Amino acid sequence: MTFLIFLIILGVLVFVHELGHFLVAKKAGIRVDEFGLGFPPRAKILGKKWGTLFTLNWIPFGGFVKIFGEDYEEDEPDSKENSFSENTQISLQSSDKLSSGDVSVGKRFTQVSKKWQAAVLCAGVAFNVLFAWFLFSISFMFGVPVSVDNNFGGDVKDPSLTIIETIDGWPAQETGLKAGDKIKELSSNIGTLELPTLDNVPNFINDSSGEMSIRVDRGGEILDFEIVPKVDDSQSKKMIGINMDMVGTLSLPVHKAIYQGGRSTAEISVLTVKGIAGLIKDAVKGQANISQVSGPVGIIGLVGDASRLGFAYLLTFTALISINLAVINLVPFPALDGGRVLFVIIESITRKPINPKVANTLNTIGFFLLIALMVVITYRDILKLF
Q1: Contacts of 277-282 spanning 24+ positions with Cβ under 8 A
Q2: pTM for the full model?
Q3: Which one of 45, 196, 326, 378 has the fewest beta carbons within 10 angstroms of its own beta carbon?
Q4: How far is 125 from 123, CA to CA, in rounded Å?
Q5: Mean pLDDT of 58-71
């Protein structure tokens, strides 16, 4: 079930991203030959409309929009028949006949102005950010978990002490406690703490000796964990390695939800840009730490955690992925949207097109480097499972 939810989230985010490219390309008068969900081999032709072939492909991780001329070396076909593969022609001929209005028409990508080219390339990013805004707004309408100290202008209902983060190498993470767990009760040799708060939990842990028990509420399921605190030498206190806060549910009216959704999107986008910029800076110095970076396997686990915690968590988590997808795509690296925007900027400055062989070689190298990075990250995610 978790994998299915992951595929749905991925499919929606990719669709939104590619829809941005598609709509702006059409607005610019550029011909779009294909809009595909997933990667080939092709599974099904959904139809042809507005001069574009819509397809469903077998490999579910991603999607694409085939914009005519975007890859520099594409030549104008002599007729609509040779703009698609032989298999596509046979499939189309076996279905309804295409009318003259269905013929692919439009300009090459390189025939429109540099402003339109940049707009088309940045449209996917923009749509992902707007989609995150939409998801955050919906979350605020239905009820989103927030700190009681929030400044969103609403009343927080049913607050409870919640784990915000588990720290690497500490007992809480090693025992299985997770962010989002609501602490309901603690027991040790000194007794039982039935009303845990930010003030009394640290003292209770520090005063205990030996093993202690923690009862948590994880998405409605009550779980018990046995844990042994350890001493933090810097503070000379016993700790289990968690950050906590009093968290409750906040619901806002539509107008406030839209405003707060936009505000959250902007704030998280800035933080994401800073985080990725810092990671790139460290990578250049040879000091990058990718231990906290997750690939598909890690994200599947996070999706499972978010779905168990509730619909609001899943919406906000999807919004976070959408923002990360947008920011990463803006990085000026070949094979990403940002890399293609960089080519457009260079062409604008030099007043001449980039050599197609150079552009395609750089994009190919960039693509394989990204795949290699994904393989490394996925391998680390798998190791974390054991």
Answers
A1: 280/331
A2: 0.74
A3: 378
A4: 5
A5: 82
User: Structurally, how many domains does the chain consist of?
Assistant: 3
DSSP 85-107: -HHHHHHHHHSSPPPGGGS---B
Residue 375: how many CB atoms within 10 A of its CB? 11
Do 91 and 210 sit in the same domain of this protein?
no
Tokens describing residue 357: 């062989």
Contact 32, 48 (CB under 8 A): no
End-to-end distance of the chain based on CA atoms, in angstroms? Answer: 21
Q: What is the pLDDT of residues 232-254, one digit of tens each?
A: 877 788 999 999 998 888 888 99
Q: Report whether 322 contacts 9 (CB < 8 A).
A: no
* 230 & 282 share domain: no
Mean of the pLDDT values across residues 55-75?
A: 77
pLDDT, tens only, 264-306 = 999 999 988 888 888 777 767 766 565 555 555 555 555 655 6
The tokens for 47 are 């139809």
Same domain, 244 and 264: no
